[in-house]
Design brief:
InterPro entries: ClpP/crotonase-like_dom_sf, Enoyl-CoA_hyd/isom_CS, Enoyl-CoA_hydra/iso. One of its GO terms (molecular function) is delta(3)-delta(2)-enoyl-CoA isomerase activity. By secondary structure, the protein is α/β, with parallel strands linked by helices. It is built from 12 helices and 10 strands. The longest helix has 29 residues.
Length: 275
């Protein structure tokens, strides 16, 4: 495999690099704020993840045959657009997506949920290099990774937030499942019911992120690479993804039963009829 490789080739939205033999980096550059659109997920993120997993599995099989553990280790870093320090991901393009009448029935079960499944079961450690805001679906994207290294916000404000409560939207079952898998009950109340904007220090104290870093995107990426070097060897047994399937069983099962949520107007209409 020759790197860098970008997807889709005619209009790159992500770029995959391989800075060392056992570390891969997927940089998201879908505009400045990395909205999670259907094209971005299906034509960019999916083939990028396929590329990384395919290359690692090829190495792992060779390492098993040669009894070489160095070939078996591996880790992946997911980072926001490296040309800016403002956004990791701004979540779904809700205004644009909801213009499609099939959005509520198709987007989550067919497009978004498979991405969450892929991250929750990926066979090597994934580190999110959170180099700016991670809102709504962007927060779910970061939390679906195994580790999070975040800017400390000293150079520019950065928040983690599920802001659906503020604009009257129900959080989909799949995203709620990821939140439940990664946050405590009291933290979930702040995330889901209060729509709290977590500063990096708050996110660290509540274990939503593992490290915060003073500096720009490159400093965050350097810290993420150091973490990748530390945890990458754990993947050498091949059991990382297998054990994640059981660790996140409840969340994974929720991904397969995601249904259309009742919106706030429908809920009010039902209450009116009942009362």
């Amino acid at each position: 495999m020759s790197y860098p490789v970008s997807f889709p080739s005619n209009n790159p939205l992500v770029t995959v690099t391989n800075p060392s033999s056992a570390i891969w980096v997927i940089e998201m550059h879908n505009g400045a704020d990395n909205r999670l659109t259907d094209v971005f997920i299906t034509q960019a993120m999916k083939p990028a993840l396929d590329t990384v997993e395919g290359h690692w599995r090829e190495n792992w099989r060779a390492g098993q045959a040669k009894k070489d553990e160095n070939l078996c280790k591996g880790s992946l870093i997911l980072v926001g657009n490296r040309k800016q320090d403002k956004f990791f991901s701004n979540g779904l393009d809700w205004a644009g997506a909801t213009k499609d009448p099939s959005f509520k029935t198709n987007f989550f079960p067919i497009i978004f949920n498979p991405l969450m499944y892929r991250l929750l079961t990926f066979p090597i450690p994934i580190i999110a290099a959170v180099n700016g805001h991670s809102f709504a679906g962007g927060m779910a994207l970061a939390l679906a990774c195994d580790y999070r290294v975040m800017t400390d916000g000293s150079k520019r404000n950065a928040w983690m937030c599920m802001n659906e409560i503020h604009f009257g939207a129900a959080i989909p079952i799949s995203i709620m499942a990821v939140l439940k898998a990664k946050a405590s009950d009291t933290t979930l109340r702040k995330i889901v019911l209060e729509g709290h904007r977590f500063t990096p220090k708050e996110a660290l104290s509540l274990r939503l992120v593992d490290h915060i870093v003073d500096g720009n995107t490159e400093a965050i990426l350097t810290a993420a690479q150091a973490l990748a070097e530390r945890v990458g060897p754990i993947a050498k047994s091949g059991a990382w993804g297998v054990n994640k399937r059981e660790l996140y069983r409840d969340a994974i099962e929720s991904l397969s039963r995601d249904v259309q949520h009742i919106d706030v107007l429908a809920d009010d209409a039902a209450a009116k009829a009942r009362l």
